[in-house]
Amino acid sequence: MARMKFLCDAERCIECNSCVTACKNENEVPWGVNRRRVVTLQDGEPGEKSISVACMHCTDAPCAAVCPVDCFYTTEEGVVLHDKDQCIGCGYCFYACPFGAPQYPQQEAFGVRGKMDKCTFCSGGPEEDNSLAEHEKYGSNRLAEGKLPLCAEMCSTKALLAGDGDIVADIYRQRTLRRGGRPQTWGWDKAYGSDV
Amino acid sequence: MMATKMLKQRIGVLPVVILGTLLMSGCIEQEIEQNLHEPGEYKGKTDPFLKMSGTQEFTDKLEQRLQQIQTDR
């Protein structure tokens, strides 16, 4: 069974933010909400690297584990989706998510949160496929049309990959072999030091 | 006279209260599982996309798309 995954190749990402723009345009994401962001590490220093981050559609999603109203579900492809009609905008998923993926539109004064919004891997939500209701609540459903997320499909350097985790890993492995090693801007050495 | 009548009434109620308390405290506590909320079970609407999701045809389509669009040319 295919499990959908995102992978951003830091060696290829040029911080053009076209993935962010593509996502916002395709899904008509409201102002102030970013389903995808480009994070730059060692900004302005030699060895600067950027990675595009959104919901990583975790296999054991912590957002789903902490949701008090159980509005999360996972498709057969491993895409983590949620029901906005069920969501109460409590913000627990935001605290639980290690990637800061859940976003909340500010709809009222005094910082009252709206319904949570996050990357859907361009597969909409629990509404009729590609209906107006689905588009308004969750954005486009490209997967139902046999397409993959637009952020990855229009990445000019093919840094961002989205699709079956096994194939994505194969593509990355081939690139790494060609390059002779993977960057250590992020990863084990960055987190724990090279001597661990 | 009135005070004596009230006292008698109160004394009459007292055994009932004591008996009731004893009966209630003597009850065996039964372990009842109260499931007010079933955690981890999706409570929202059913997604029609799930019918298509997971089929071999759909998986093949997405695989073909990935190879076609996202691999180096």
Can you offer a commentary on this structure?
The complex is a heterodimer of chains A (196) and B (73). Chain A is α+β, with helices and mostly antiparallel strands. Chain A contains 7 helices and 6 strands. Chain A has helices at 18-27, 62-66, 92-96, 132-138, 150-153, 165-179, 188-192; strands at residues 4-8, 37-41, 49-53, 72-74, 80-82, 160-164. Chain A is globular. By secondary structure, chain B is mainly alpha-helical. Chain B has 3 helices and no strands. Chain B has helices at residues 2-25, 49-52, 56-69. The interface between A and B is medium-sized, with 42 and 27 residues.
Structural class of chain A: alpha+beta
Separation, N- and C-terminal Cα atoms of chain B: 110 Å
Q: What is the strand tally of chain B?
A: 0
- In N-to-C order, the SSE pattern of chain B is HHH
Q: What share of the residues of chain A does DSSP label as strand, in percent?
A: 5-15%
β-strand percent of chain B reads: under 5%
**Overall 3D shape of chain B:** rod-shaped
Radius of gyration of chain B from CA coordinates: 35 Å
Please mark out the parts of chain A with pLDDT under 50 across 5 or more consecutive residues, or reply none.
none
> What is the tally of beta strands of chain A?
6
Q: What's the short story on this structure?
A:
The complex is a heterodimer of chains A (196) and B (73). Chain A has 196 residues and is of the alpha+beta class.
Which secondary structure elements does this structure contain, and how are they paired or packed?
The complex is a heterodimer of chains A (196) and B (73).
Chain A: E1 4-8, H1 18-27, E2 37-41, E3 49-53, H2 62-66, E4 72-74, E5 80-82, H3 92-96, H4 132-138, H5 150-153, E6 160-164, H6 165-179, H7 188-192
Antiparallel strand pairs in A: 1-6, 2-3, 4-5
Chain B: H1 2-25, H2 49-52, H3 56-69
